[in-house]
Design a protein that fits this description.
Blueprint (H helix, E strand, L loop, with lengths): L26 H12 L4 H12 L1 H7 L1 H6 L9 H15 L4 E4 L4 H9 L2 H5 L15 H11 L5 E6 L5 E8 H13 L4 E3 L4
Antiparallel strand pairs: 1-3, 2-3, 2-4
Length: 195
């Protein structure tokens, strides 16, 4: 070994594998962005969703009755779920989504959807004569997707792991973003006919 061999370039040491992330993407910022997209930036919605995501345990305690209606009766182990259900409840209370049973009647489906703030803001029309009343929510939403195609709007739903549909109208562009944001935190928002 020559005197200068020590100064020769040596192969770099292999990099240690990176440690897996301890947590996934932070939940709260995605929930807040979802609220902003669905509610068109409604300040009252964003204020409440911020409070829910910043202190989910406190939000649960303050709104325990609402969670009990959804079957969450004890102190929650899953604070992410508290935020997700809190998001839905806040959007529903403020008129941006409607929670409809899977066996909803056409008249009720039509009434609640037409009274959503997003329906009105998007200037949508809905005529009950377009539908077969013996069909169900996914079939009715398929009809609406076709009717609203030129406006690039469809009915989407927030999945809360029940047999109901948390419905709201949204643009195609917003739906793509909502799907991405929900997916990053292990939840699902999609067009009703795909759920």
């Amino acid at each position: 070994m020559g005197i200068f061999d020590h100064f020769k370039k040596q192969a770099p040491a292999p990099e240690a594998p990176s440690a897996p992330e301890a947590e996934g993407k932070p939940f709260g910022p995605n929930v807040l962005e979802i609220a902003k997209l669905i509610s068109s930036g409604d300040e009252a919605v964003l204020k409440d969703v911020s409070a829910c995501t910043e202190d989910p345990a406190g939000w649960f305690t303050a709104h325990q009755e609402r969670y009990e209606e959804r079957g969450v009766v004890d102190d929650p182990d899953d604070l992410d779920q508290v935020q997700w259900l809190g998001l839905v409840d806040i959007l529903e209370e403020r008129g941006w989504v409607c929670d409809r049973d899977w066996k909803d009647e056409l008249e009720d489906f039509s009434y609640f959807l037409q009274n959503l703030k997003g329906f009105q803001a998007l200037g949508l029309e809905l005529d009950e004569s377009w539908f077969d009343e013996d069909e169900d929510i996914p079939a009715w939403c398929t009809v609406l997707t076709e009717k609203w195609r030129s406006q690039e709007v469809r009915v989407a739903a927030i999945n809360i792991n029940t047999d109901s549909y948390v419905l709201f109208p949204t643009t195609y562009a917003h739906l793509d973003e909502l799907q991405k944001l929900a997916g990053e935190i292990g939840h699902c928002i999609d067009a009703v006919e795909r759920m």
